[in-house]
UniProtKB/TrEMBL annotation:
<feature type="domain" description="Cyclic nucleotide-binding">
    <location>
        <begin position="5"/>
        <end position="115"/>
    </location>
</feature>
<protein>
    <submittedName>
        <fullName>CRP-like cAMP-binding protein</fullName>
    </submittedName>
</protein>
<dbReference type="InterPro" id="IPR014710">
    <property type="entry name" value="RmlC-like_jellyroll"/>
</dbReference>
<dbReference type="InterPro" id="IPR018490">
    <property type="entry name" value="cNMP-bd_dom_sf"/>
</dbReference>
<dbReference type="InterPro" id="IPR000595">
    <property type="entry name" value="cNMP-bd_dom"/>
</dbReference>
<dbReference type="Pfam" id="PF00027">
    <property type="entry name" value="cNMP_binding"/>
</dbReference>
C-alpha cells in the first residue's frame, strides 16, 4: 500500500531501499469510508495524510452553515491542517473523505524525528511545502485578478481529475462561488 507514497517521495528525492524501509517504520496505514472524518474542527491535527487511494477535502463551516472548501486531495496528494499540526493549536478545518480512501499517515513525532535524522526527508518536506505555498499564492492571485470564467477554466485545466470526481457544488465552494453562479459560468463557457 505504500507504492504511490514512495513513488511520490522518490520523484523529489531518490531513496535507497534501506532508506525507504526506515521511513516505512514511521508510517501508519488508515482506511476511511466516504463521509468519515480524518479531522474535525477544534481537534488538534496529529497527522499529515498522503492519499494512496480515494479523495478527501479540507473545509471550514461558517456561522450560516456554509462550507468553504480550501483543498481537495486525490491520489498522490497530501492533506492536513498544517497550522494545527505544526503549532498544536485546535484545527480550524474539517477533513473528510469524498470517497472510500486509503491513507498513509505520519504523526507529528515521527515527522519531527525524520526531519532531524534524515536529510532526504527534510528536503522532501521542504519541496512539498514550497509547492503548496506556490499553489496557494497562484490561487490567491487568481481569485483577486481573474474573472469567474477564467478561474473555472484554470481549475479545469489544472485539475481535470477533480472536476470528474467531485460534485459541482463542492467545486463552486472551492472557487468561492454559489452553485448557481458556477452553473451560469459553465453555461457561458460552453456557449462560446
Amino acid at each position: 500500500m505504500y507504492t504511490l507514497f514512495f513513488q511520490h517521495l522518490n520523484s523529489k528525492v531518490q531513496l535507497t531501499e534501506e532508506e525507504q524501509a526506515h521511513i516505512k517504520t514511521y508510517l501508519t496505514l488508515k482506511k476511511i469510508r466516504k463521509k468519515q472524518y480524518l479531522l474535525q474542527e477544534g481537534d488538534v491535527c496529529k497527522v499529515i495524510a498522503f492519499v494512496e487511494k480515494g479523495a478527501l477535502r479540507a473545509y471550514s463551516v461558517d456561522d450560516n452553515s456554509n462550507e468553504h472548501i480550501i483543498q481537495f486531495a486525490l491520489e498522490g496528494w497530501t492533506i492536513s491542517d498544517l497550522y494545527s499540526f505544526l503549532t498544536g493549536d485546535p484545527a480550524t478545518y474539517n477533513i473528510d473523505a469524498l470517497e472510500d480512501s486509503e491513507l498513509v499517515l505520519i504523526s507529528k513525532s515521527a515527522h519531527e524525528e525524520l526531519l532531524q535524522t534524515m536529510p532526504k526527508y527534510e528536503t522532501f518536506t521542504r519541496l512539498n511545502i514550497t509547492g503548496a505555498y506556490l499553489a496557494m499564492q497562484r490561487r490567491l492571485t487568481s481569485i483577486k485578478s481573474s474573472t469567474a470564467e477564467e478561474r473555472y477554466q484554470d481549475f479545469i485545466a489544472l485539475y481535470p481529475h477533480i472536476a470528474q470526481r467531485v460534485p459541482q457544488h463542492m467545486i463552486a465552494s472551492y472557487m468561492g462561488l454559489t452553485p448557481e453562479t458556477l452553473s451560469r459560468v459553465r453555461k457561458r463557457i460552453s456557449s462560446k
